[in-house]
């Protein structure tokens, strides 16, 4: 949007300039509101909501980036450039704070432009709240409530997508299965509260040990899985050693003599989800039989 020349006209009695497209909102507010609502109601995806809204907001204020900050994270419009001055607006509906919209712009942001943006924000509020609720429900459906990792349902979907890409592009990936050695004894001796603390600590150690491109899941109990975004056994082996080193150094796990056994394998273009899972599970079984606190590859 940097090279767009904006036509503007003076607002009577204010001595301020407003883009001519924004003046259309002033003269046709009901028509424009209905059109924007119709567009926003077509989706419940946060990024699509922000992109749709950014097109309309740009008619009032030419900007280089639009971000929405909430407890769910940061969503921004496509093609954002984080330069220029920023202007922020808190968004609330029925005493509920949704988050904050932040515009990056090189244009002067006058009082009149702020007023026009706030009118647009009032149209955005309810579709945005619905999208946030949808995002939260969707996240709950795919997350393990104790650790915040992906759950079994999320794992199954992710594995099937990985396998489809593997068949299409002939690029393998790793599947790693892990469980905790001596965990049942800890639960039986110290109770589930201590056990839950250990599971959360182990989940944190996994998150610190893998790369940003790898994905971690908890199936339930002390069973975990990692989808390793690499087609070499050596990478999975390095990650396994890194995880076991982190477990050995952790004071809580060391106190309760908890270690981890790991089995891993690489996908092939002929695999289905049962075949690759069975190989990784056999590798985990081998690690258990080899004395635990070790890894094995199939």
Automatic annotation (TrEMBL):
| Annotated GO biological process | cell adhesion involved in single-species biofilm formation; negative regulation of bacterial-type flagellum-dependent cell motility
Q: Which GO terms describe its cellular component?
A: plasma membrane
User: Looking at the record's lineage, which domain of life comes first?
Assistant: Bacteria
| GO molecular function annotation | diguanylate cyclase activity
- Location of the GGDEF domain: 171-298
| Record-linked PROSITE patterns | GGDEF
Q: Could you tell me which SMART domains the record lists for this protein?
A: GGDEF
Instruction: Enumerate the transmembrane spans.
Output: none
Instruction: List, separated by semicolons, the cofactors it needs.
Output: Mg(2+)
EC number(s): the record gives 2.7.7.65
Listed Pfam families: GGDEF
Q: Which residues form a coiled coil?
A: none
Record-linked PANTHER family:
DIGUANYLATE CYCLASE DGCN, REGULATORY COMPONENTS OF SENSORY TRANSDUCTION SYSTEM
Q: What protein am I looking at? A: diguanylate cyclase
Q: Organism, per UniProt?
A: Pseudoalteromonas tunicata D2
